[in-house]
Structure formats: structure tokens, C-alpha cells
Amino acid sequence: MTRKPSLTGRLSKGWQNKVNNIIPEKVHAVLTNAIKHMVRAVLIGSEFITKSPLTEEMSFEAREALIQDKINFYKKAAAAEGAGTGAGGIFLGLADFPLLLSIKIKFLFDAAGLYGFDVRDVKERLYILYIFQLAFSSEKRRGEVYHHILHWDEWVKTLPASVDNIDWRLFQQEYRDYIDLAKMLQLVPGIGAFVGAYANYHLLDKLGVTAMNCYRMRLLLKNDEEKGDPLYPKE
Q1: How many domains does the chain divide into?
Q2: Domain encompassing residue 219
Q3: What are φ and ψ of residue 234, in 5° steps?
Q4: Domain of life of the organism in this record (predicted)?
Q5: 113: closest CA among 129, 124, 99, 101?
Q6: Which end of the chain offers a freer environment for a tag, N or C, measured as fewer CB atoms within 10 Å?
């Protein structure tokens, strides 16, 4: 996460930035507004259909076994959704974007609850959005997000107490650039179903691994601060 961007990463991001600069500002504004309202709607909806946080006493291994079951469930759901929309051509392919976004956010809500965090707290929903960005951002942006997650308790105090005020332009641009190629190939007749299933399956797998490590790190840091263990120092 802290490694400097590779040459390939820099070239890829440079090319994407040039493309983004060509796109008219009005288009960027429309996309940003659409993503903002889409994510807000998913966040609000997921809040009401997510179970209360798992607070009962159980071993960390048992808790993570439940998380892994969730990851496997959502990977299969995402693959099925990608295959279905990919097989339907360009119009159904366009529907994949909000559907996959919903699946990803719902998984993060479930994961937070299984780790014992209450997503009714706006700070936990902000944390979810940062996990999302950590999984689906450029190498440069990933390093910045990782630093904020590593120092979350301090960083969250500087954030506005609402998801409305995050940088939605940056959020949508990084996410869109990350999944660009896979989603474009998904629209190609004949291979769309295969590409959609494969891409969505692996995108959920990546999100699952990222989420598990974020919550592990958060719990380990909290535990080490309480015990004074230098294994995971703040700096």
C-alpha cells in the first residue's frame, strides 16, 4: 500500500487523466452527481436491511469464518449479476454499474456488522467508503487512503459529519478509471457474459480481502494501544 506507483501505474493513470481532461466538465458534473446519489441511496438502503452488529463473545477465528462465508456469497452473487447483464448486450451492461455498486456496499455493511461495528454511526459509513476507495483507486490515491485508514481515529475527527461532503468527483473518477477496461469489455457481444462474471467475481474478492485487512488492522491497533504493545505503532 505504501509502495511508490509503478511505471505501469503512472503511465496508465497519466493516460486516464488525459482522457478525463478531454471529457467536458458538464459530463464530469453529471457523472459525479449520479455517483453521489447512487452511493447515498445504497448507503441509506443498506442501513435499514443490515442486521445489528455482532457483539456476542466469540473467537476472532469464528468471526472471520462468518466474514469469509459472506465474501463467498457476494462473489457468487456478483458473478451471476455480471454474467446476466453481460449477456444482455449494451443496455443491460449499463445496468451492471449500479447493481454491482449495490452488491459491494451491501457486503461492506455486512462485514462491518460481523466485526462488531455499528453502521448506523455515520463515521462507520465513512469508513466503509474509505475501504471502498482503498480497494478501487489508483496506486497514488491508494497510498493516501491507506494513510488515513491507518490513522483513522485522528483522521475521522477532521471529516464533516456527513457522507454528502466527501470529494465525490475524486471518488467517482478513481472508481471509474479502475474498472474501465473490464466494464467496457463486458459490453462486447459474445464475451460479455464471461467477462462480466469473471470481473465481478474478482472485484468482490479484492474488496473482501481489503475489508478484512482494514478491520483486522483497526482492531489490532486498538488492542495494541490498550496494551501498550509496540507491534503496530502509530507511525
Answers
A1: 1
A2: 7-227
A3: -65, -40
A4: Bacteria
A5: 124
A6: C
